[in-house]
Specification:
The structure holds two protein chains of two kinds. Chain A is 0% helix and 51% strand. Chain A has no helices and ten strands. In chain A, the strands form two sheets. In chain A, strands 1-3-8-7-6 form a five-stranded antiparallel beta sheet, with no helix packed on it. In chain A, strands 2-10-9-4-5 form a five-stranded mixed beta sheet, with no helix packed on it. In chain A, strand 7 and strand 8 form a beta hairpin. The relative contact order of chain A is 0.35. Chain B is an all-beta fold. The termini of chain B are far apart. The chains are: A mainly beta, B mainly beta. At the A-B interface, strand 4 and strand 5 of A face strand 5 and strand 10 of B.
Chain lengths: 111, 114
């Protein structure tokens, strides 16, 4: 099965700084790479995703980059704000299965 | 267009009782997934269902746990003879087709076993 690792497990930044979270996976058949954000007491929410035929995707302050050769993809958040504080999960996907989530990265943005 | 609806939000059960968790997927979504989240931990996959069909139950404990998604009505996750270790948040997600189309999660059911 898929082995998913996220780094770092916790990340503290000052408001306005950038944050990068990396996700490595083991199965080269994975072809869909989403990132989810979970705020305290809520369910996870999809914030950005990328397909395997694309190297980078950007949506305002959030971007995802994919390196299929090295089997990792990263979440980039620029100009961080306190409301970005949450737990972020990656979930590389291969056809025929459900999403398998990484253990999560707790991002804290201090003002 | 309501999102994924889970109920109850909070459920307290005594050891040995049964817990029934309900999940109504988004309109038009035919795929349902259940995940368990322990405090300070990630989301553990439990089961993947389509209408009247279990696609993947590799994450379900072998005993006491069962899930269904009938032709009519919500998906049900049932835990029989609950134990303290079953205390967790249980999340349901749905998607219109396969997971590659993206999940929408519900707000979860927080089960406490006393």
């Amino acid at each position: 099965g898929e082995n998913v690792e996220q780094h770092p497990s916790t990340l503290s930044v000052q408001e306005g700084d950038s944050a990068v979270i990396k996700c490595t996976y083991s199965d080269s058949a994975s072809n869909y790479f989403p990132w989810y954000k979970q705020e305290l007491g809520k369910g996870p929410q999809l914030i950005i995703d990328i397909r395997s035929n694309v190297g980078e995707k950007k949506d305002q302050r959030i971007a995802v980059t994919l390196n299929k050769t090295a089997k990792h993809f990263s979440l980039h958040i620029t100009e961080t704000q306190p409301e970005d504080s949450a737990v972020y999960f990656c979930a590389p996907y291969q056809a025929g299965t459900a999403l398998i989530f990484g253990k999560g990265t707790t991002l804290s943005v201090s003002s | 267009n309501a999102g994924v609806m889970q109920n109850p939000r909070h459920l307290v059960r005594r050891r040995g009782q049964e817990a029934r968790l309900r999940c109504s997927p988004m309109k038009g979504h035919s795929h349902v997934y259940w995940y368990r989240q322990l405090p300070e931990e990630g989301l553990k996959f439990m089961v993947y269902l389509q209408k009247e069909n279990i696609i993947d139950e590799s994450g379900m404990p072998k005993e006491r746990f069962s899930a269904e998604f009938p032709k009519e009505g919500p998906s049900i996750l049932r835990i029989q003879q609950v134990v303290r270790g079953d205390s967790a948040a249980y999340f349901c997600a749905s998607s219109p087709q396969e997971p590659i189309s993206g999940y929408t999660f519900g707000s979860g059911t927080r089960l406490t076993v006393v």
